[in-house]
Amino acid sequence: MNTISTKLLIDKLLQNYKIIDVRAPIEFAQGELPNSINLPLLNDDERALIGTCYKKSGREKAIELGYQIVSGPNKDEKVMKWQEYLKYNPHSIITCFRGGLRSQTSQKFLAEQGIEILRVEKGYKEIRQFFTDELNAYSESQDFRVLTGKTGSGKTKVLKQLRTQHPAIDLEDLAKHKGSAFGATNSPQPAQASFENNLSFEVLKHRAINPKSIILYEDESRLIGRVHLPDQFFEKLRSSRVIKMNVSLEERIENIFSDYIFPEAPIFDKYLAAVSRIEKKLGGKRTSELQQDLSFSKKQFQEQGLLVSNKIWIEKILTWYYDPMYTYSFDKRNPLIEFEGCTKDVINYLMSK
Q1: Could you tell me what percent of the chain has a pLDDT over 90?
Q2: What is the pTM of this model?
Q3: Is 256:152 a contact under the CB 8 Å cutoff?
């Protein structure tokens, strides 16, 4: 049956082909590929049964058990799901972990229904390695452009605004996290491998359009929530020249207020928990004061529907915690400043690039 190499698969993904990943859900959760959907041949329990059989009785007995499990209504249900997906996504390619029995069997079952589909020859394992190698090679050989500035400067907004004018990748968007102790979003963060796969693919997309393009990133710490930037990528990010946004404290308070304060009571408990997590760095006295400010803001919102008092604790957390941390880190690494200015000047400079 028709197979496709990893290199050719990447070319297809750049043309917006989709991947049907037939690994078990537990494997998919540990690392997924761009443009992929999990439509497993075996669910987690079925995979575990076959794995136990393989250990006790060997490969042939495990294969035999697999065909027994995926038969009758079970087989029909799984084939139907693949067919339904292919109806709306005809340009799809199938894969499993190593391009072995699971994807071969899935491909065979579809062929029985008159549907021909390409299969990745060596599966997720080799694709994952390809993305890792590509990202490392890019980090070693290409220049980065890094947008920096104190917390609340509006770097993410500028990055999003410029994406149609300047090659840019939003690392926080890929990580599903705003990159601070208060940055958790309503969306769950991806697995580490998924984050790295998607970052590598975003780089490949930009370089397919313009191999010489210098991609713009927001200045980030190594950790974005619970995912971390790959070592070589992070080292290059930190050693690259920067474009520095100089934004007043008042404007940064307004930006934080706009981005983080919503008319929802649960946000106060979320932020109280975030303050507790950084107590060691804040110190007990300042932590207690911030908790009192937050509790007052919560009470004022519940009783009067007002949110403006949140600006009090926002100013304190910026001046007590984020600004000293940024200044220490920035001075320590002492990056080359390519350009600095107010938000408008930075936008104009980057658009000229």
Answers
A1: 92
A2: 0.93
A3: yes
